[in-house]
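User: Good morning. I'm curious how flavin-adenine dinucleotide would be positioned relative to this chain. Could you predict the structure with it bound?
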Amino acid sequence: MRGDRIRKVVIVGGGTAGWMTAAAMSQILGEMPDLTIELVESDEIGTVGVGEATIPQINLFNALLGIDERDFVRSTNATYKLGIEFRDWTRIGHSYVHPFGFYGLDMLGIEFHHHWLKGRMAGDAVPLDVYSLGVVAGLAGRFAHPSPDQPNSPLSRIAYAFQFDASLYAKYLRQRAEALGVRRTEGRIVDVVQNGETGFVEAVVLSDERLVEGDLFIDCSGFRGLLIEQALQGGFEDWSKWLPCDRAVAVPCENSDDQQPLTRSTARLAGWQWRIPLQHRTGNGYVYSSAQIGDDEAADVLLANLDGAALAEPRLLRFKAGHRKKAWIKNVVAIGLAGGFLEPLESTSIHLIQTGIARLMTLFPTRRFDDIEIERYNRLTVREYADIRDFLVLHYHANERTDSELWRYCRETAPPEGVSYKLDMFRRTGRVIREHDELFTETSWLAVLVGQGAEAQNYHPAADILSDAETLQRLAHIREVVAQTAAMMPTQNDYLQRQGSASNVTLRRAS
Ligand code: FAD
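Assistant: Good morning! Here's the predicted structure, ligand included:
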Protein backbone atom coordinates (compact mmCIF):
# COMPACT_ATOMS: atom_id res chain seq x y z
CA MET A 1 0.00 0.00 0.00
CA ARG A 2 1.39 3.42 -0.89
CA GLY A 3 2.60 5.53 2.00
CA ASP A 4 2.11 8.99 0.55
CA ARG A 5 -1.67 9.08 0.51
CA ILE A 6 -3.57 12.17 1.67
CA ARG A 7 -4.76 11.43 5.20
CA LYS A 8 -6.60 14.61 6.03
CA VAL A 9 -8.61 16.97 3.81
CA VAL A 10 -9.72 20.29 5.24
CA ILE A 11 -12.55 22.11 3.46
CA VAL A 12 -12.59 25.79 4.36
CA GLY A 13 -16.14 27.13 4.04
CA GLY A 14 -19.64 25.72 4.23
CA GLY A 15 -21.54 27.46 1.45
CA THR A 16 -22.81 25.60 -1.61
CA ALA A 17 -19.21 24.97 -2.71
CA GLY A 18 -18.05 23.62 0.64
CA TRP A 19 -20.94 21.23 1.13
CA MET A 20 -21.00 20.06 -2.49
CA THR A 21 -17.31 19.27 -2.15
CA ALA A 22 -17.79 17.53 1.18
CA ALA A 23 -20.74 15.46 -0.08
CA ALA A 24 -18.99 14.38 -3.30
CA MET A 25 -15.66 13.69 -1.68
CA SER A 26 -17.12 11.61 1.11
CA GLN A 27 -19.21 9.68 -1.41
CA ILE A 28 -16.31 8.97 -3.76
CA LEU A 29 -13.31 8.77 -1.44
CA GLY A 30 -15.01 7.96 1.83
CA GLU A 31 -13.68 4.40 1.81
CA MET A 32 -10.05 5.43 1.29
CA PRO A 33 -8.08 3.99 4.22
CA ASP A 34 -7.50 6.45 7.06
CA LEU A 35 -8.90 9.45 5.18
CA THR A 36 -10.51 12.14 7.33
CA ILE A 37 -12.51 15.04 5.89
CA GLU A 38 -13.17 18.09 8.06
CA LEU A 39 -15.17 21.16 7.05
CA VAL A 40 -14.69 24.45 8.87
CA GLU A 41 -17.32 27.16 8.58
CA SER A 42 -18.43 30.18 10.47
CA ASP A 43 -22.09 30.91 11.11
CA GLU A 44 -20.96 34.40 12.13
CA ILE A 45 -19.70 35.08 8.59
CA GLY A 46 -22.46 33.24 6.73
CA THR A 47 -22.71 32.42 3.05
CA VAL A 48 -23.31 34.50 -0.05
CA GLY A 49 -26.92 33.28 0.10
CA VAL A 50 -27.79 33.48 -3.60
CA GLY A 51 -27.34 30.96 -6.41
CA GLU A 52 -30.66 29.43 -7.19
CA ALA A 53 -30.70 28.57 -10.88
CA THR A 54 -28.82 25.66 -12.40
CA ILE A 55 -28.17 23.92 -15.71
CA PRO A 56 -29.01 20.29 -16.59
CA GLN A 57 -25.59 18.95 -15.56
CA ILE A 58 -26.70 19.27 -11.92
CA ASN A 59 -28.63 16.05 -12.57
CA LEU A 60 -25.31 14.23 -13.01
CA PHE A 61 -24.02 15.53 -9.70
CA ASN A 62 -27.19 14.54 -7.86
CA ALA A 63 -27.11 11.11 -9.49
CA LEU A 64 -23.50 10.62 -8.44
CA LEU A 65 -24.61 11.21 -4.86
CA GLY A 66 -27.55 8.84 -5.26
CA ILE A 67 -30.03 11.64 -4.55
CA ASP A 68 -33.70 10.85 -5.08
CA GLU A 69 -35.06 13.66 -7.24
CA ARG A 70 -38.48 13.91 -5.59
CA ASP A 71 -36.94 14.09 -2.16
CA PHE A 72 -34.47 16.72 -3.35
CA VAL A 73 -37.20 18.82 -5.04
CA ARG A 74 -39.33 18.73 -1.87
CA SER A 75 -36.42 19.43 0.47
CA THR A 76 -35.07 22.44 -1.42
CA ASN A 77 -38.42 23.95 -2.54
CA ALA A 78 -37.20 23.41 -6.09
CA THR A 79 -38.97 24.09 -9.34
CA TYR A 80 -38.04 22.79 -12.78
CA LYS A 81 -36.20 24.85 -15.35
CA LEU A 82 -36.40 24.34 -19.11
CA GLY A 83 -34.28 27.33 -20.06
CA ILE A 84 -33.85 31.07 -19.65
CA GLU A 85 -36.12 33.71 -21.13
CA PHE A 86 -34.26 36.83 -22.22
CA ARG A 87 -36.37 39.96 -22.38
CA ASP A 88 -35.23 43.27 -23.88
CA TRP A 89 -31.68 42.00 -24.41
CA THR A 90 -31.56 42.42 -28.17
CA ARG A 91 -33.76 45.51 -28.19
CA ILE A 92 -36.57 46.73 -25.98
CA GLY A 93 -39.76 44.73 -26.54
CA HIS A 94 -37.94 41.72 -27.99
CA SER A 95 -37.64 38.38 -26.23
CA TYR A 96 -36.33 34.88 -26.82
CA VAL A 97 -35.64 31.75 -24.81
CA HIS A 98 -32.38 29.86 -24.51
CA PRO A 99 -33.75 26.34 -24.01
CA PHE A 100 -32.02 23.22 -22.80
CA GLY A 101 -32.50 20.34 -25.24
CA PHE A 102 -32.92 20.73 -28.98
CA TYR A 103 -34.69 22.53 -31.77
CA GLY A 104 -36.73 20.55 -34.27
CA LEU A 105 -35.26 17.48 -35.84
CA ASP A 106 -32.03 16.98 -37.75
CA MET A 107 -32.90 16.05 -41.34
CA LEU A 108 -30.80 14.55 -44.14
CA GLY A 109 -27.89 14.32 -41.75
CA ILE A 110 -27.64 18.07 -41.25
CA GLU A 111 -28.66 20.15 -38.29
CA PHE A 112 -32.24 21.33 -38.08
CA HIS A 113 -31.38 25.02 -38.06
CA HIS A 114 -30.04 24.90 -41.62
CA HIS A 115 -33.53 23.90 -42.79
CA TRP A 116 -34.99 26.65 -40.66
CA LEU A 117 -32.59 29.16 -42.24
CA LYS A 118 -33.54 27.92 -45.69
CA GLY A 119 -37.22 28.29 -44.76
CA ARG A 120 -36.58 31.87 -43.67
CA MET A 121 -34.89 32.66 -46.91
CA ALA A 122 -37.93 31.19 -48.66
CA GLY A 123 -40.11 33.70 -46.81
CA ASP A 124 -41.18 31.74 -43.71
CA ALA A 125 -40.73 34.19 -40.81
CA VAL A 126 -41.66 31.78 -38.00
CA PRO A 127 -39.20 32.24 -35.11
CA LEU A 128 -36.81 29.51 -34.03
CA ASP A 129 -38.38 29.39 -30.55
CA VAL A 130 -41.50 27.53 -31.72
CA TYR A 131 -39.42 24.51 -32.78
CA SER A 132 -38.23 23.86 -29.24
CA LEU A 133 -40.45 21.92 -26.85
CA GLY A 134 -38.53 23.45 -23.95
CA VAL A 135 -39.50 26.94 -25.09
CA VAL A 136 -43.12 26.26 -25.98
CA ALA A 137 -43.82 24.22 -22.83
CA GLY A 138 -41.80 26.61 -20.65
CA LEU A 139 -43.70 29.71 -21.77
CA ALA A 140 -46.99 27.85 -21.29
CA GLY A 141 -46.03 26.91 -17.70
CA ARG A 142 -45.86 23.19 -18.52
CA PHE A 143 -43.40 20.50 -17.54
CA ALA A 144 -42.84 16.75 -17.82
CA HIS A 145 -39.78 14.56 -17.54
CA PRO A 146 -38.17 13.28 -20.75
CA SER A 147 -39.71 10.06 -22.04
CA PRO A 148 -36.95 8.20 -23.88
CA ASP A 149 -39.38 5.35 -24.53
CA GLN A 150 -41.12 7.56 -27.13
CA PRO A 151 -38.20 8.21 -29.49
CA ASN A 152 -40.39 9.94 -32.08
CA SER A 153 -41.72 12.50 -29.64
CA PRO A 154 -39.84 15.74 -28.87
CA LEU A 155 -40.48 14.82 -25.23
CA SER A 156 -37.85 12.10 -25.57
CA ARG A 157 -35.11 14.74 -25.70
CA ILE A 158 -36.37 17.53 -23.46
CA ALA A 159 -33.70 18.56 -20.96
CA TYR A 160 -34.20 20.21 -17.61
CA ALA A 161 -32.48 21.66 -14.60
CA PHE A 162 -33.75 23.08 -11.29
CA GLN A 163 -34.25 26.33 -9.48
CA PHE A 164 -33.90 25.83 -5.75
CA ASP A 165 -33.24 27.45 -2.42
CA ALA A 166 -29.44 27.38 -2.27
CA SER A 167 -29.26 27.44 1.52
CA LEU A 168 -31.60 24.43 1.69
CA TYR A 169 -29.46 22.63 -0.89
CA ALA A 170 -26.34 23.21 1.22
CA LYS A 171 -28.23 21.93 4.28
CA TYR A 172 -29.41 18.88 2.34
CA LEU A 173 -25.86 18.06 1.23
CA ARG A 174 -24.54 18.66 4.72
CA GLN A 175 -26.80 15.95 6.13
CA ARG A 176 -25.53 13.51 3.53
CA ALA A 177 -21.89 14.44 4.02
CA GLU A 178 -22.09 14.21 7.81
CA ALA A 179 -23.81 10.83 7.50
CA LEU A 180 -20.81 9.69 5.46
CA GLY A 181 -18.40 10.79 8.14
CA VAL A 182 -17.46 14.40 7.29
CA ARG A 183 -16.64 16.27 10.50
CA ARG A 184 -17.98 19.84 10.74
CA THR A 185 -16.15 22.40 12.84
CA GLU A 186 -17.77 25.70 13.68
CA GLY A 187 -15.30 28.57 14.01
CA ARG A 188 -13.87 31.70 12.45
CA ILE A 189 -10.50 31.27 10.81
CA VAL A 190 -8.19 34.10 11.79
CA ASP A 191 -4.83 32.86 10.56
CA VAL A 192 -3.17 30.39 8.22
CA VAL A 193 -0.01 28.45 9.16
CA GLN A 194 2.36 27.84 6.24
CA ASN A 195 5.53 25.79 6.11
CA GLY A 196 8.51 28.18 6.40
CA GLU A 197 10.36 26.50 3.52
CA THR A 198 7.76 25.25 1.07
CA GLY A 199 4.89 27.65 1.73
CA PHE A 200 2.50 24.69 1.91
CA VAL A 201 -0.48 25.29 4.19
CA GLU A 202 -0.17 23.21 7.36
CA ALA A 203 -3.15 24.43 9.38
CA VAL A 204 -5.79 27.07 9.81
CA VAL A 205 -6.13 28.83 13.15
CA LEU A 206 -9.54 29.56 14.64
CA SER A 207 -10.41 32.61 16.72
CA ASP A 208 -10.38 30.49 19.90
CA GLU A 209 -6.81 29.39 18.98
CA ARG A 210 -7.77 25.88 17.92
CA LEU A 211 -5.65 24.56 15.05
CA VAL A 212 -7.16 22.54 12.19
CA GLU A 213 -4.33 20.70 10.44
CA GLY A 214 -4.44 18.94 7.09
CA ASP A 215 -2.58 17.60 4.06
CA LEU A 216 -4.90 19.00 1.40
CA PHE A 217 -6.94 22.20 1.81
CA ILE A 218 -9.97 23.03 -0.32
CA ASP A 219 -10.61 26.75 -0.26
CA CYS A 220 -14.38 27.24 -0.41
CA SER A 221 -14.29 30.48 1.56
CA GLY A 222 -16.14 32.54 -1.04
CA PHE A 223 -15.05 35.79 -2.69
CA ARG A 224 -12.41 36.47 -0.04
CA GLY A 225 -10.31 33.45 -1.09
CA LEU A 226 -8.90 33.01 2.40
CA LEU A 227 -6.19 30.53 1.40
CA ILE A 228 -5.77 30.85 -2.37
CA GLU A 229 -5.53 34.64 -2.36
CA GLN A 230 -5.00 35.98 1.14
CA ALA A 231 -2.38 33.34 2.05
CA LEU A 232 -0.97 32.21 -1.31
CA GLN A 233 -1.61 35.32 -3.40
CA GLY A 234 -2.74 33.44 -6.48
CA GLY A 235 -3.58 36.62 -8.44
CA PHE A 236 -6.78 37.34 -10.34
CA GLU A 237 -7.50 37.44 -14.07
CA ASP A 238 -9.90 40.35 -14.44
CA TRP A 239 -12.44 40.15 -17.29
CA SER A 240 -14.52 43.18 -16.36
CA LYS A 241 -13.56 44.80 -19.67
CA TRP A 242 -15.98 42.36 -21.34
CA LEU A 243 -18.32 41.72 -18.44
CA PRO A 244 -18.60 45.14 -16.77
CA CYS A 245 -21.34 44.33 -14.26
CA ASP A 246 -19.75 44.31 -10.81
CA ARG A 247 -22.62 44.42 -8.32
CA ALA A 248 -25.96 42.88 -7.65
CA VAL A 249 -28.80 43.70 -5.35
CA ALA A 250 -30.99 40.71 -4.49
CA VAL A 251 -34.38 40.33 -2.84
CA PRO A 252 -36.93 37.51 -2.57
CA CYS A 253 -40.60 38.25 -3.14
CA GLU A 254 -43.95 36.48 -3.01
CA ASN A 255 -44.76 34.27 -5.97
CA SER A 256 -47.15 35.26 -8.67
CA ASP A 257 -49.60 32.68 -10.01
CA ASP A 258 -47.67 32.56 -13.25
CA GLN A 259 -45.35 29.61 -12.58
CA GLN A 260 -43.27 29.04 -15.69
CA PRO A 261 -40.43 26.51 -15.46
CA LEU A 262 -38.04 29.18 -16.72
CA THR A 263 -35.55 31.60 -15.27
CA ARG A 264 -36.15 35.09 -16.60
CA SER A 265 -33.51 37.69 -17.38
CA THR A 266 -34.71 41.18 -18.27
CA ALA A 267 -32.15 43.66 -19.56
CA ARG A 268 -32.20 47.05 -17.87
CA LEU A 269 -30.35 50.31 -18.51
CA ALA A 270 -27.34 49.42 -16.36
CA GLY A 271 -27.45 45.61 -16.42
CA TRP A 272 -30.17 43.01 -16.07
CA GLN A 273 -32.67 41.60 -13.60
CA TRP A 274 -33.14 37.94 -12.73
CA ARG A 275 -36.39 36.30 -11.71
CA ILE A 276 -36.20 32.76 -10.37
CA PRO A 277 -39.53 31.26 -9.27
CA LEU A 278 -39.23 28.63 -6.54
CA GLN A 279 -42.08 26.75 -4.88
CA HIS A 280 -42.40 29.08 -1.91
CA ARG A 281 -41.05 32.40 -3.22
CA THR A 282 -39.41 34.09 -6.18
CA GLY A 283 -35.75 35.08 -6.13
CA ASN A 284 -34.92 38.40 -7.79
CA GLY A 285 -31.81 40.42 -8.35
CA TYR A 286 -30.48 43.32 -10.40
CA VAL A 287 -26.97 42.71 -11.71
CA TYR A 288 -25.47 46.06 -12.70
CA SER A 289 -22.42 48.08 -13.51
CA SER A 290 -21.62 50.44 -10.64
CA ALA A 291 -20.17 52.87 -13.18
CA GLN A 292 -23.67 53.30 -14.63
CA ILE A 293 -26.01 53.36 -11.63
CA GLY A 294 -25.84 53.91 -7.87
CA ASP A 295 -26.70 51.19 -5.36
CA ASP A 296 -29.81 52.93 -4.05
CA GLU A 297 -31.16 53.55 -7.52
CA ALA A 298 -30.50 49.93 -8.50
CA ALA A 299 -32.42 48.74 -5.43
CA ASP A 300 -35.31 51.06 -6.34
CA VAL A 301 -35.42 49.66 -9.88
CA LEU A 302 -35.45 46.12 -8.50
CA LEU A 303 -38.17 46.80 -5.95
CA ALA A 304 -40.31 48.49 -8.60
CA ASN A 305 -40.15 45.38 -10.79
CA LEU A 306 -41.18 42.49 -8.54
CA ASP A 307 -44.05 40.05 -9.06
CA GLY A 308 -45.23 40.33 -5.46
CA ALA A 309 -44.42 41.88 -2.09
CA ALA A 310 -40.73 41.84 -1.10
CA LEU A 311 -40.02 39.30 1.65
CA ALA A 312 -36.76 40.82 2.95
CA GLU A 313 -34.56 43.88 2.71
CA PRO A 314 -32.55 44.11 -0.54
CA ARG A 315 -29.05 42.69 -0.16
CA LEU A 316 -25.99 44.17 -1.92
CA LEU A 317 -23.24 41.95 -3.38
CA ARG A 318 -19.99 43.12 -4.93
CA PHE A 319 -17.93 41.05 -7.37
CA LYS A 320 -15.55 41.16 -10.26
CA ALA A 321 -15.79 38.97 -13.37
CA GLY A 322 -12.81 36.66 -13.71
CA HIS A 323 -10.93 33.87 -12.01
CA ARG A 324 -7.84 33.13 -9.94
CA LYS A 325 -4.85 32.78 -12.22
CA LYS A 326 -4.25 29.41 -10.59
CA ALA A 327 -7.07 27.56 -8.86
CA TRP A 328 -4.61 25.03 -7.42
CA ILE A 329 -1.41 26.22 -5.72
CA LYS A 330 0.77 23.92 -3.60
CA ASN A 331 -1.69 21.97 -1.41
CA VAL A 332 -4.62 24.39 -1.82
CA VAL A 333 -7.41 24.02 -4.39
CA ALA A 334 -9.98 26.81 -4.70
CA ILE A 335 -13.53 25.76 -5.54
CA GLY A 336 -16.59 28.01 -5.83
CA LEU A 337 -16.43 31.77 -5.49
CA ALA A 338 -12.93 31.47 -3.98
CA GLY A 339 -11.81 30.31 -7.44
CA GLY A 340 -13.60 32.91 -9.52
CA PHE A 341 -16.94 34.29 -10.60
CA LEU A 342 -18.70 34.85 -13.87
CA GLU A 343 -21.97 36.64 -13.42
CA PRO A 344 -25.10 34.51 -13.06
CA LEU A 345 -26.49 35.21 -16.54
CA GLU A 346 -26.39 31.56 -17.60
CA SER A 347 -26.42 30.02 -14.08
CA THR A 348 -22.96 28.52 -14.41
CA SER A 349 -21.40 28.98 -10.95
CA ILE A 350 -22.80 25.86 -9.34
CA HIS A 351 -21.76 23.98 -12.45
CA LEU A 352 -18.22 25.33 -12.07
CA ILE A 353 -18.20 23.98 -8.53
CA GLN A 354 -19.30 20.62 -9.84
CA THR A 355 -16.62 20.44 -12.54
CA GLY A 356 -13.97 21.69 -10.11
CA ILE A 357 -14.85 18.78 -7.82
CA ALA A 358 -14.91 16.29 -10.71
CA ARG A 359 -11.49 17.46 -11.90
CA LEU A 360 -10.10 17.21 -8.39
CA MET A 361 -11.46 13.69 -8.00
CA THR A 362 -9.82 12.69 -11.29
CA LEU A 363 -6.52 14.27 -10.36
CA PHE A 364 -6.71 13.56 -6.64
CA PRO A 365 -3.13 14.03 -5.42
CA THR A 366 -0.82 12.29 -3.02
CA ARG A 367 1.26 14.16 -0.46
CA ARG A 368 3.92 14.52 -3.16
CA PHE A 369 1.65 17.00 -5.01
CA ASP A 370 2.98 16.28 -8.46
CA ASP A 371 3.32 19.44 -10.59
CA ILE A 372 2.00 17.68 -13.67
CA GLU A 373 -1.39 17.05 -12.03
CA ILE A 374 -1.59 20.59 -10.70
CA GLU A 375 -0.69 22.09 -14.07
CA ARG A 376 -3.40 20.04 -15.79
CA TYR A 377 -6.01 21.02 -13.24
CA ASN A 378 -5.20 24.71 -13.69
CA ARG A 379 -5.08 24.58 -17.47
CA LEU A 380 -8.45 22.85 -17.77
CA THR A 381 -10.00 25.22 -15.23
CA VAL A 382 -8.86 28.34 -17.10
CA ARG A 383 -10.13 26.92 -20.37
CA GLU A 384 -13.53 26.20 -18.88
CA TYR A 385 -13.82 29.72 -17.48
CA ALA A 386 -12.81 31.21 -20.84
CA ASP A 387 -15.40 29.12 -22.72
CA ILE A 388 -18.17 30.26 -20.40
CA ARG A 389 -16.95 33.87 -20.54
CA ASP A 390 -17.23 33.81 -24.33
CA PHE A 391 -20.79 32.58 -24.20
CA LEU A 392 -21.76 35.27 -21.68
CA VAL A 393 -20.03 38.00 -23.67
CA LEU A 394 -22.06 37.09 -26.76
CA HIS A 395 -25.25 38.16 -24.92
CA TYR A 396 -23.81 41.57 -24.13
CA HIS A 397 -21.91 42.23 -27.33
CA ALA A 398 -24.56 41.30 -29.91
CA ASN A 399 -27.14 43.86 -28.85
CA GLU A 400 -28.98 46.55 -30.76
CA ARG A 401 -29.89 48.74 -27.81
CA THR A 402 -29.09 52.42 -28.07
CA ASP A 403 -30.69 53.62 -24.86
CA SER A 404 -27.74 53.48 -22.47
CA GLU A 405 -24.01 53.76 -22.19
CA LEU A 406 -23.64 50.16 -20.97
CA TRP A 407 -25.21 48.62 -24.06
CA ARG A 408 -23.29 50.93 -26.41
CA TYR A 409 -20.04 50.10 -24.61
CA CYS A 410 -20.64 46.33 -24.81
CA ARG A 411 -21.51 46.46 -28.49
CA GLU A 412 -18.53 48.61 -29.38
CA THR A 413 -15.93 46.74 -27.30
CA ALA A 414 -14.22 44.05 -29.38
CA PRO A 415 -15.20 40.68 -27.88
CA PRO A 416 -12.74 37.84 -27.18
CA GLU A 417 -11.53 36.15 -30.35
CA GLY A 418 -13.67 33.03 -29.83
CA VAL A 419 -16.84 35.15 -29.89
CA SER A 420 -15.89 37.08 -33.05
CA TYR A 421 -15.05 33.81 -34.78
CA LYS A 422 -18.34 32.18 -33.91
CA LEU A 423 -20.31 35.28 -34.87
CA ASP A 424 -18.47 35.55 -38.15
CA MET A 425 -18.92 31.86 -38.94
CA PHE A 426 -22.64 32.03 -38.25
CA ARG A 427 -23.22 35.24 -40.17
CA ARG A 428 -21.32 34.09 -43.23
CA THR A 429 -22.25 30.39 -43.39
CA GLY A 430 -25.07 29.65 -40.94
CA ARG A 431 -22.78 27.20 -39.16
CA VAL A 432 -22.72 27.00 -35.37
CA ILE A 433 -19.37 25.95 -33.99
CA ARG A 434 -18.72 24.21 -30.70
CA GLU A 435 -15.03 24.08 -29.84
CA HIS A 436 -13.47 21.01 -28.14
CA ASP A 437 -15.76 19.86 -25.32
CA GLU A 438 -16.93 23.32 -24.24
CA LEU A 439 -19.89 23.44 -21.88
CA PHE A 440 -22.43 25.16 -24.10
CA THR A 441 -23.69 23.08 -27.00
CA GLU A 442 -24.53 24.12 -30.54
CA THR A 443 -28.17 24.51 -29.43
CA SER A 444 -27.14 27.03 -26.81
CA TRP A 445 -24.92 29.03 -29.15
CA LEU A 446 -27.63 28.97 -31.80
CA ALA A 447 -30.29 30.15 -29.37
CA VAL A 448 -28.27 33.16 -28.31
CA LEU A 449 -26.84 33.97 -31.75
CA VAL A 450 -30.32 34.02 -33.27
CA GLY A 451 -31.89 35.51 -30.16
CA GLN A 452 -29.43 38.39 -30.10
CA GLY A 453 -30.20 39.18 -33.71
CA ALA A 454 -27.24 37.70 -35.62
CA GLU A 455 -28.41 37.12 -39.21
CA ALA A 456 -27.02 34.18 -41.19
CA GLN A 457 -26.52 34.88 -44.87
CA ASN A 458 -26.29 31.22 -45.83
CA TYR A 459 -27.13 27.67 -44.84
CA HIS A 460 -25.67 24.23 -45.40
CA PRO A 461 -25.78 23.48 -49.17
CA ALA A 462 -27.23 20.02 -48.53
CA ALA A 463 -30.46 21.59 -47.24
CA ASP A 464 -31.23 22.17 -50.94
CA ILE A 465 -31.82 18.44 -51.35
CA LEU A 466 -35.33 19.41 -50.23
CA SER A 467 -37.30 21.81 -52.41
CA ASP A 468 -38.52 25.05 -50.81
CA ALA A 469 -42.05 23.68 -50.68
CA GLU A 470 -40.93 20.43 -49.02
CA THR A 471 -38.84 22.35 -46.49
CA LEU A 472 -41.76 24.60 -45.57
CA GLN A 473 -44.06 21.64 -45.25
CA ARG A 474 -41.70 19.75 -42.96
CA LEU A 475 -41.12 22.85 -40.82
CA ALA A 476 -44.85 23.31 -40.41
CA HIS A 477 -45.24 19.67 -39.39
CA ILE A 478 -42.46 19.87 -36.80
CA ARG A 479 -43.87 22.95 -35.12
CA GLU A 480 -47.31 21.36 -35.05
CA VAL A 481 -45.88 18.29 -33.28
CA VAL A 482 -44.07 20.53 -30.80
CA ALA A 483 -47.23 22.55 -30.09
CA GLN A 484 -49.36 19.42 -29.66
CA THR A 485 -46.82 17.76 -27.37
CA ALA A 486 -46.58 20.86 -25.19
CA ALA A 487 -50.38 21.11 -24.96
CA MET A 488 -50.53 17.55 -23.60
CA MET A 489 -47.97 18.18 -20.86
CA PRO A 490 -49.25 18.98 -17.34
CA THR A 491 -48.69 22.38 -15.82
CA GLN A 492 -45.65 22.56 -13.60
CA ASN A 493 -47.91 23.25 -10.61
CA ASP A 494 -49.88 20.05 -11.18
CA TYR A 495 -46.74 18.09 -11.83
CA LEU A 496 -45.07 19.21 -8.61
CA GLN A 497 -48.17 18.52 -6.57
CA ARG A 498 -48.47 15.04 -8.03
CA GLN A 499 -44.92 14.42 -6.90
CA GLY A 500 -45.65 15.51 -3.37
CA SER A 501 -44.41 19.10 -3.64
CA ALA A 502 -46.77 22.03 -3.43
CA SER A 503 -45.96 24.68 -5.92
CA ASN A 504 -49.40 26.20 -5.60
CA VAL A 505 -48.82 29.51 -3.86
CA THR A 506 -51.89 29.37 -1.62
CA LEU A 507 -51.09 25.85 -0.46
CA ARG A 508 -47.58 26.89 0.42
CA ARG A 509 -48.59 29.98 2.28
CA ALA A 510 -51.17 28.08 4.28
CA SER A 511 -48.70 25.39 5.32
P1 FAD B 1 -20.05 31.39 0.10
O1 FAD B 1 -21.49 31.10 -0.03
O2 FAD B 1 -19.65 32.83 0.27
O3 FAD B 1 -19.50 30.52 1.29
C1 FAD B 1 -18.28 30.81 1.90
C2 FAD B 1 -18.13 29.99 3.16
O4 FAD B 1 -16.86 30.26 3.72
C3 FAD B 1 -19.16 30.31 4.23
O5 FAD B 1 -19.58 29.12 4.86
C4 FAD B 1 -18.38 31.14 5.23
O6 FAD B 1 -18.87 31.03 6.53
C5 FAD B 1 -17.00 30.51 5.09
N1 FAD B 1 -15.93 31.39 5.52
C6 FAD B 1 -15.46 32.49 4.91
N2 FAD B 1 -14.50 33.08 5.65
C7 FAD B 1 -14.35 32.30 6.73
C8 FAD B 1 -13.52 32.37 7.89
N3 FAD B 1 -12.65 33.37 8.08
N4 FAD B 1 -13.64 31.41 8.82
C9 FAD B 1 -14.52 30.37 8.67
N5 FAD B 1 -15.34 30.26 7.61
C10 FAD B 1 -15.25 31.22 6.66
N6 FAD B 1 -24.75 30.38 -9.08
C11 FAD B 1 -25.55 29.60 -9.82
O7 FAD B 1 -25.15 28.48 -10.18
N7 FAD B 1 -26.80 30.04 -10.20
C12 FAD B 1 -27.23 31.28 -9.91
O8 FAD B 1 -28.36 31.62 -10.24
C13 FAD B 1 -26.37 32.14 -9.20
N8 FAD B 1 -26.72 33.42 -8.92
C14 FAD B 1 -25.82 34.24 -8.29
C15 FAD B 1 -26.11 35.61 -8.13
C16 FAD B 1 -25.17 36.47 -7.54
C17 FAD B 1 -25.46 37.92 -7.44
C18 FAD B 1 -23.96 35.94 -7.05
C19 FAD B 1 -22.96 36.83 -6.38
C20 FAD B 1 -23.69 34.61 -7.19
C21 FAD B 1 -24.58 33.76 -7.83
N9 FAD B 1 -24.28 32.41 -8.04
C22 FAD B 1 -25.11 31.63 -8.78
C23 FAD B 1 -23.06 31.85 -7.50
C24 FAD B 1 -23.38 31.03 -6.25
O9 FAD B 1 -24.03 31.85 -5.30
C25 FAD B 1 -22.10 30.50 -5.65
O10 FAD B 1 -21.37 29.84 -6.64
C26 FAD B 1 -22.40 29.52 -4.55
O11 FAD B 1 -23.25 30.07 -3.61
C27 FAD B 1 -21.12 29.07 -3.89
O12 FAD B 1 -20.63 30.02 -3.03
P2 FAD B 1 -19.41 29.60 -2.12
O13 FAD B 1 -19.78 28.40 -1.35
O14 FAD B 1 -18.21 29.53 -3.00
O15 FAD B 1 -19.19 30.87 -1.19
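Residues 13-18, 40-42, 45-48, 50-54, 166, 188-189, 220-222, 224, 226, 248, 250, 285, 317, 319, 336-338, 344, 347, 349-350, 353 surround flavin-adenine dinucleotide (CB under 6 Å). The chain has 16 helices and 21 strands.
Let me know if you'd like a different ligand tried.
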